[in-house]
Structure formats: C-alpha cells, structure tokens
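Allow me, if you will, to draw on your knowledge of protein folds for a short while. I have a record of one protein: its chain in single-letter code and its fold written as discrete structure tokens. I remain grateful for any guidance, and I place the record below:
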Amino acid sequence: MTTETDVLVLGGAGVDTIVYVPELPLPYADSYMVRPGIETRAGQTGDFVALGVSALGLRTHHLDMIGDDYAGDLVRGLHSERGIALTGIPLPGGTKRAVNLVGPDGRRLSLYDDSRSREEDRLPSATVRALAATSRHAHVSITYPCAFALPELRESGVTISTDLHNWDGVNAYHEPFAYEADIVFLSTTALADTEGTMRRIAGRGRADVVVATAGAEGAYLLADGELSHIPAVTPPGPVVDSNGAGDAFAAGFLLGRLTGEPTRRCGLYGAVAGAHACTVPATRADSIGRAELLARVAEWEATA
C-alpha cells in the first residue's frame, strides 16, 4: 500500500478559551477587567502538532474523537481552512475544552475540562489500522483514549512519537505512552530528576530518543545513551505566550527526523520552531513554515 501521509496525529483536538490576566498566580478578587478581550479558538496539543508539521510541508492527517457541537465545528473549520485532513469520530461527551490563563510574561495556566471523555470511548481499531497503513509516522497525544490505539500502531510498523507534557515521572497514566513510543518528548517542569526519568523511559521502553524541554534553558537530548544539552534559541520577537511551544518543538524535531537529519540537528529544528511559537499570541494558531525555519537554523549555525 502506498504512503499517503507523513505524520498521522492521534488525539489532542479541542478548543481553548484564552484569558489574558495581569499576573500569575492570580490573586483572589471578586472580578478582573481583562485586555485583550476573552477569545475562544480551536487548537489544543494535537491540533498544534498537526498544524506545525503541515506548515513545515509534511503530509498530515489528524484522527480524534470530536463532538457534534459548536466547539467541534471550530476544530473542523480550522483543519479545513489549513488544508489538513481530519477524521473525526463522534464524541458523545462533546468536544474537549480548556480555559487558558496567560500572564504578561507569556506563561500559561491551563484549566482542562476533564469531563468530556467516557471510559468506553475508543478510536475504532479498523480506522487506526487503515490510516497507519498509509503513514510513515504517528504522533500520539496523551489525551484519552489514545493509549488504546498504541498496539494497532505498533503492529502497523509506523514509528511513534508522543509528548508527555508536564509528567512528574510517577503518574501511571503516562506510562503506556512513555514506554511504547520511539521518540518521547516531555517537559522538565514537574520532574524531580530529569536525567533519571529520561534514562528510565529509554531503559524500560522502546524510545531511542528522549527530549526534555526546559523553556528558556533549552532542552536535554538523550540519544544512544548519551545526554546532551540543546541551547535555547532567541525568539525572533517579543515572547507573548508559551502556549503551543512544546507542540511546535515536536513538529520541528519530526521534520528533521523524517528528512534524515542527525538527531542533534533535529533538536535545533525543534528549538527554532518552539522559539517562534512563543512570539505568537494565544488567540492565534500560526506555525513557522519550512523556508523560515531552515533559514533561521542556517543563521544560528553560522553564528554559533
């Protein structure tokens, strides 16, 4: 069967309501006057990865459970507008939602609505298998019920990546994703022992690459048993929002991986894409393009 898709993204479709607040943490008050205005837009972790790899020129297909509601229409509209194939399985509980509070320094606090999923929700095995059979790579969001699709993906032979986000290294929910993926991304935010967690992921699971992003400190790369540091890249403009930076990093890294770049250069691709994302307001869903990314990588390499 021919390959029709470079990156199959599973899960992570949803809608965020963005609220800019004067500071984080937000002290208690009866009310706050906020500017810019409160906005609701499509785009959660899977959406942003799909947008990112598509903007970088990779053929992309997104599979998730989505509600028959206004929020679902926003998700479907975003994919249609950007020309990204979307297979939406009906989600009886309604499209996943979150409220993101964004501080003046770009930091984000996400209030995720965990009531949308039911225990019996599943991505149909036949659909997962059919899409995986024509894909080069699958990126699996940790949203429910994507863990149940991992065996079908593994049997199909596609390589798998995942983003554990702010895993603490202990929560058992994340373990199927951490130990079944070939490439694992996570944040250092909640880790007590970054290197120990990275080595445990590689030792217990299938990952040949583990990347821990550390915001302005850059990222840490574990590959072939060697831990190295990926320096942070200076954003091309003011930092206004960190929302989606990790998803952009993953998209940039996957471009490098799927085009045969050395692992450390993949990390640089990710750092450049993540830095760009920090300059994009949370109310927008814009990703760096391939030509701009490659130009910035070349510029950084020339001056490093």
